[in-house]
Design brief:
Elements (H helix, E strand, L loop, with lengths): L16 H4 L13 H6 L6 H12 L7 H8 L6 H5 L6 H14 L6 H14 L2 H14 L3 H8 L7 H9 L22 E5 L4 H5 L1 H13 L2 E4 L9 H5 L3 H15 L7 E3 L2 H7 L2 H4 L7 H10 E3 H8 L6 E8 L3 H4 L6 H8 L2 E5 L15 H4 L1 H18 L3 E4 L2 H14 L4 E4 H17 L2
Parallel strand pairs: 1-2, 1-3, 3-4, 5-6, 5-7, 7-8
The structure holds iron/sulfur cluster (2 copies).
One iron/sulfur cluster (SF4) binds next to helix 3.
């Protein structure tokens, strides 16, 4: 809980002094922070932001728009947390700082309120999100899109132009709870596939590919009914009460599936679900259940690598793997995706500079902080122009969309795939080669 001297509200959800005081100001996190690397400013570094959060909590600093702007520019990528020798839980500090901001009677709060309404009433409601996402699905490979880009009409509305650049060339059918996945001939184990919100609507093909990869290893995966959005976007926005509500719904829905692993192919969702225990630690009815649930959560790359089954895979091409922040920094999963890539025969692993530095997608960041997001995207585009990979592989929907824009900026004929899609394609190709006379 924040200091008694703090004039700011939300005592229950304000950043804990215990967390804030762990920072010893050593500065070892600075060179890992994308916003510090771009600006060179202390206030845009993790150390600077923690200092501001502590000063606000202790009542030494007013929580004005300038202070909030420094927090808003943070991508919540958690690269700082991964390198901090003092174990500062930066992700938690920032979520609680944003909860404190949201409850303060600040100027300029309209945008924040709108964002919260959107997250609660659109993103987290499949009945509304589903029909809305039919629009990009239809537009993805349409002549309307081509004409709007060619005539530059799309540029009239800047946020629409940004979304258009991120939209894949093809958006397959959605995959929602209850939908069928490929099943193995001989069942060796069971798993639950977490479908998510935007992930299930825009990247249903990634879910189907994941189902096939698991089926080849004898795992019967089911997209269990009743599951909802993981709540990560709401938590990052500081709407912890709503994130808790969604977490409870997921626990209720998936508890009946016993001890089966909960496989997540969106790094942001997985990171958040692995932290349900922390999110619900003060909820006497759910605390223990949340801990048990979190222990079952596995990123898809982590789970497939653990299965260790040798399924032949063939892909002739140059592939660069770009770490999603919430996989590399929040879940500390770096080796497993690379291991899977190295199991693919014919595949050349193309290493770029700063493959683990944030691409600038960061949930809704590319919409609310377009300048910094574009700068980070351009740095990726530069690397793609230099190395000209055939495929950019990653493991998070927001990153996939940002890399669509980056390869377009690079002007290369590079495909953007989830690593599980690449693996599925490579395994199907090896299977086809075996069967051909
Ligand atoms: S967050 Fe960690 S690494 Fe960064 S200044 Fe504080 S103690 Fe040092
Ligand atoms: S979460 Fe990322 S952007 Fe934010 S302070 Fe840490 S390293 Fe910098």
């Amino acid at each position: 809980m924040a200091s008694e001297r703090s004039p700011w509200p939300v005592p229950a959800d304000a950043p804990a002094m215990e967390d804030l005081s762990k920072c010893v100001h050593c500065g070892l996190c600075l060179m890992a922070c994308p916003t510090y690397l771009v600006t060179g400013l202390e206030v845009e570094s993790p150390r600077g932001r923690i200092y501001l959060a502590r000063a606000v909590s202790e009542g030494r600093l007013e929580m004005n728009e300038t202070v909030q702007a420094h927090w808003d520019l943070c991508l919540q990528c958690r690269a700082c947390e991964a390198v901090c020798p003092s174990g500062v839980p930066y992700g938690r500090i920032m979520e609680h700082t944003r909860a404190q901001v949201a409850a303060a009677p600040a100027e300029g709060g309209r945008g924040r309120r709108l964002r919260r309404l959107f997250l609660r009433n659109v993103i987290a409601r499949r009945g509304i999100l589903g029909p809305l996402m039919a629009i990009p699905r239809v537009l993805a490979d349409s002549k309307i899109r081509t004409a709007a880009v060619k005539t530059r009409v799309i540029r009239v509305v800047a946020p629409l132009a940004r979304l258009e650049r991120q939209l894949p060339r093809r958006v397959g059918p959605a995959l929602r709870p209850g939908d069928a996945l490929a099943q193995p001939e001989v069942v060796r184990g069971n798993a639950v596939l977490f479908t998510g919100c935007v992930m299930g609507e825009v990247f249903g093909d990634v879910h189907r590919a994941t189902g096939r990869v698991l089926a080849r290893r004898g795992i019967a995966a089911v997209a269990t009914m009743g599951q909802v959005c993981c709540g990560a976007l709401s938590a990052h926005d500081g709407d912890l009460d709503f994130a808790r509500k969604l977490a409870r719904k997921n626990i209720d829905a998936l508890e009946a599936t016993g001890e089966a692993p909960i496989v997540v192919n969106s790094a942001g969702c997985g990171a958040s679900m692995k932290e349900y225990g922390d999110l619900l630690k003060n909820d006497s009815k759910y605390a223990e259940r949340a801990r048990r649930f979190a222990a079952r959560v596995k990123d898809a790359t982590e789970y497939v690598a653990e299965l260790g089954a040798e399924v032949p895979a063939q892909f002739e091409g140059r592939v660069t793997y770009q770490d999603p922040c919430h996989l590399a920094h929040a879940q500390r999963i770096r080796q497993q995706p690379r291991h899977l890539l190295h199991t693919i025969a014919g595949c050349e692993d193309v290493k770029t500079d700063a493959s683990d530095v944030c691409c600038g997608a960061a949930g809704m960041y590319s919409l609310v902080e377009p300048g910094m997001s574009a700068t980070l995207r351009s740095r990726k585009a530069e690397q793609f122009r230099l190395h000209r990979p055939d495929v950019v592989a990653t493991a998070n929907p927001g990153c996939q969309m940002q890399y669509e824009a980056a390869v377009r900026e690079a002007g290369t004929a590079t495909r953007v795939l989830h690593l599980l899609e690449l693996l599925d394609e490579a395994e199907a190709a090896a299977e086809a080669a075996r069967q051909s006379p």
